[in-house]
Design goal:
There is one protein chain. By secondary structure, the chain is α+β, with helices and mostly antiparallel strands. The protein has two domains: 2-120, Impact, N-terminal domain (Ribosomal Protein S5, domain 2, 2-Layer Sandwich); 126-197, Alpha-Beta Plaits (2-Layer Sandwich). Helices cover 29% and strands 40% of the residues. It has helices at residues 29-42, 72-81, 101-119, 140-149, 175-178, and strands spanning 2-4, 8-14, 17-25, 48-55, 58-62, 87-94, 122-135, 152-159, 163-169, 187-197. Strands 1, 7, 8, 9 and 10 form a five-stranded antiparallel sheet that branches. Strand 8 (152-159) and strand 9 (163-169) form a beta hairpin. Helix 2 packs across helix 3. The protein is elongated and about 70 Å long. The two termini are 13 Å apart.
Length: 199
């Protein structure tokens, strides 16, 4: 699967109307809606803030007052055509006084998203099982050695009362099995599933 590495913004002008497209990497509907809300506040003076998103728990689009099917749907179609997932697109329009007609709007919103995708850094993502290793500070060396020797990837480290590593296996190796010889020293718990850049 493909997504964008980081947020990107591009701008086009068509018959005096300004179209600003912002793309954001997003994992779920909650993240998408929070970003859409922020952008609606940022561009509260705009004529329209049209949206489309494809994320882990669903997809959706909104014409935000443009004639039905002329904004959100063309936007999501561009995301689909480019096989992008975990992404939210917002196109902000400042009306320039010249009507574009239904066909013109479809082309304008499609072009706006395509331009932004053209500027984005596209990365491959895969769904990984994330496990949490919990151990004492005195066992850091053991944990680091096993992580390295078994081609595990550490995506997060937390040093508080105990040490906590969030790890994934590049080749779906059984992480619990790797650490079973350290029972009582290193506890291994399944944390969640996450879409991450391909390791």
């Amino acid at each position: 699967m493909k997504t964008i590495k980081k947020p990107v913004q591009s701008e086009i002008n068509i018959k005096k109307s300004q179209f600003i497209c912002c793309l954001f990497p997003t994992k779920n509907k909650k993240e998408s809606k929070e970003i859409i809300q922020k952008l609606n506040q940022k561009y509260s003076d705009a004529t329209h803030n049209c949206t489309a998103y494809i994320v882990g728990d669903g997809e959706g689009f909104d014409d935000d007052g443009e004639p039905g099917g002329t904004a959100g749907k063309p936007m999501i179609n561009v995301l689909r055509k480019n096989e992008l997932h975990n992404v939210t697109a917002i196109v902000t329009r400042y009306f320039g006084g010249i009507k574009l007609g239904a066909g013109g709007l479809v082309r304008a919103y499609s072009k706006s998203v395509m331009e932004a995708i053209g500027e984005a850094e596209i990365v491959e993502i895969e769904e990984y099982d994330v496990y949490e290793l919990v151990f004492e500070y005195s066992d850091i060396k053991i944990a680091d050695t096993e992580v390295r020797n078994n081609s595990l990837e550490t995506i997060d480290k937390d040093y508080s009362d105990k040490v906590r590593y969030s790890v994934v296996s590049k080749d779906n190796r059984d992480i619990e099995k790797i650490f079973e010889k350290y029972l009582g020293k290193i506890s291994v718990n399944f944390k969640n599933k996450q879409f991450l850049e391909k390791i």
